[in-house]
Amino acid sequence: MQDPTITCPNCGSSIHLTESLAAPLIRAREAQLEKQALEKARKTVDLDLAARARETAELKSLLESREKKLAEAQAAQADLIRKQRELDDAKREFALTVEKRVQTELKTLREAARTEAEQALGLKLQEKDEQLASMQRQIEALRRKAEQGSQQLQGEAQELALEALLRQKFPGDLIEPVPKGEIGADLLHRVIGPAGQLCGTLLWEAKRTKNWSDTWLPKLRADQRTARADLALLVSQALPKNLQNFDLVEGIWVIDPRCALAVAVALRQSLIELTTARAATEGRQGKMERTYEYLTSPRFRQRIEAIVEHFTAMQSDLDRERLLMQKSWAKRESQIRGVLEATVGMYGDLQGIAGKSLPEIEGLALPMLEAPAAE
User: Fold this and answer.
1) Are 333 and 347 in contact (CB under 8 A)?
2) For residue 335, what is the enclosing H or E element?
3) How far from chain centre, in Å, is Cα 327?
4) Which residue of 136, 238, 279, 367 pairs with 212 in a disulfide if CB–CB is 3.0 to 4.6 A?
5) 338-362 residue pLDDT tens
6) The pLDDT of residue 22
7) What are the angstrom distances between the C-alpha of 204 and each of 152, 158, 222, 264, 359?
8) Can you point out the beta strands (E) in the chain?
9) Are 152 and 169 in contact (CB under 8 A)?
10) Which residues contact 228 (CB under 8 A, 6 or more apart)?
């Protein structure tokens, strides 16, 4: 067997080894080669593992991409199914809505047709009712006209009878019918005294109705002030409650027709006597005397009564407005109370001057000035 030869790595010369020397070297070489082979195999395995890892990662990425696409496809399919279901539901809902709307329109049309028919029928019935009502109004108007004509004729007849009675009893007096629409009363009776002097004026109003009305008295008082009459007399068949024959009611002589002549005689004589008494004091005519006569005259009394009536009416209006205008009411009431108290004070001062000759005026009594009862 030929000895193994090795080449020196330094000088490149060949060295022949004996078998005893070559065995360790061979074993070392074999170990080195084995180590190199293992290292190469390890590198190859690592490269193969790295390649396989890359392939696995690529496959995993591909799988994830495919799974994502599959999920998206499944989601899109689910959304499509949901939209299809919603579309089907919307179609059914639309069909139901259309059906309901058609039913509603049909119901509205039926109701409109029924209402139109009812209105047409109602108009016809209303026309008939209106015709009947118009006929009833015409009948009522004719009846009232007939009654008014009858009452007017009766009133005029009573007025003429009263005028004839007064003319017959007092031929020397001036008795004139009041023209319609001027003063509102019926007769203006001027009393002429024995010496031919004018002693006063009586204003007559004749009523011939079944029922008494409280509105006659204020109207006659207003007519009396307008005519400047000394006394006002209301002759009426209907008298206030608890009044018999005649009495002085709120400054107006209310008389039953049977007593009219007797009351006229008494009042006329009173006016003549008052004029005679005044004539006896004409020699003392001065400013104080004229003032005194004015203060004791019916005209002054009528002025005071007019003031009291107007302020009393204002007080009544304030009483009605008190619930809605409490603050304003209290202020106005205080003002009116002040004016009324001032009027009463003025009247008291004048009464202190004139004494008992100054006539009492209704409405200025103490209860009129008392505070209203607390609610």
Assistant:
1) no
2) helix 326-354
3) 20
4) 238
5) 777 777 777 777 766 666 665 666 6
6) 67
7) 17, 12, 13, 10, 22
8) 5-7, 14-16, 174-177, 187-192, 198-207, 231-236, 246-249, 252-255
9) no
10) 201, 299
Give the amino acid at 250: E
Max distance between CA atoms of the chain, in angstroms, equals 211
**Whole-prediction pTM:** 0.40
Residue 29, token pair as written in the block? 């070489």
Distance between CA 92 and CA 98 in Å, rounded?
A: 10
Amino acid letter at 97?
T
Q: Could you count the other beta carbons within 10 Å of the beta carbon of residue 254?
A: 26
CA atoms within 13 A on the CB side of 249: 24
Q: What is the pLDDT of residues 189-242, one digit of tens each?
A: 999 988 888 888 898 888 878 888 888 888 888 888 888 888 888 988 888 888
How far is CA 296 from its chain centroid? 51
Q: How many CA atoms lie within 13 A of 81 on its CB side?
A: 6
Rounded distance between C-alpha atoms, residue 301 and residue 362, angstroms: 10
Give residue-wise pLDDT tens across range 111-147.
888 888 888 877 877 877 787 787 777 767 766 665 5
Cβ atoms of residues 18 and 5 within 8 Å: no
Q: Which residues of 166-181 are buried (b: 16+ CB within 10 A; e: fewer)?
A: beeebeebebeebeee
Count CA atoms closer than 13 A to 156's CA, side-chain side: 8
- Residues comprising the chain, all counted: 375
265 vs 339: CA distance, rounded Å? 39
